[in-house]
Write the structure tokens for this entry.
Amino acid sequence: MKKHLYLILTVLFLTTVFASLVFWQNNSVENKNEKTKIIFLDVGQGDAMMIDTLGDTQILIDGGDGKDILNKLGEYLPFYDRKIELVIMTHPDKDHLGGLVEVLKYYEVKQILETGIKCEKAICEEWDRLIKEKNIPVKYAEFGQRIKTGNIEMAVLHPFKNLENKEVKNSNNVSIVLKLVVNNSLFEIGKDNEKKIFRQAQDDNIILLTGDAGFPVEKNLISQNINLESKILKVSHHGSKYGTSNEFLKSVKPEKAIISVGKNSYGHPAKELLNRLKNINIEIFRTDEVGDWILEY
């Protein structure tokens, strides 16, 4: 009887092992066929965006203000993937940085890109402490830096120079601005509360990411004759009326705009800003209306 039971348990064990091997093999094949995903994450009143290049390399740009980012990463990354190759912190406001602090606690981050400006907030002190504790390499953003992985490439357009340990009056106006280019054709997917899907093939493969940059940054970018033209614009500062000027829109020439925004007392997105976009027929997507906005290439 014992031998019979032992035989049954052995067979069950071997079957489980075989099934696991098949799962991992199939999963490996699927990863090789993955498309690059660019996901504007709905983290409420804050900014967070993840780039997943061909299921192989993850880049996280900002993280909202708290632990919501962990739930979002759990939705899009397999449970066994606890590594993020690059974290970009556009500027040290809590609604961008707070979630990144949580990410440092629970994920292995290989490298960080930030402005390096002086910040005496408690959240900044925790950020710096975790970086030192985990010995994470940090680079400081300045114009001309390039990031390339898989089929995507990003260029830093702002700040124009290294700001490590510099004091600034307004951290919004030293936000990292990035131009992102994807080589392949795009399929866009957006979801609203009614589970509608927006999908179409086109060549919207250039995206401008603006952090919380306001009018002064926009004027500087325009005055430097930088090529800002992009099919998609990540609207700055959650749709603040103090950003995304008419002049800036003329330089960028976007066809679509994504606004990362949640319930707030600031009046975001401002009517003035929405009117500026509507007046030139830019299609608007808001995370508080469509949820996560996903681009697949």
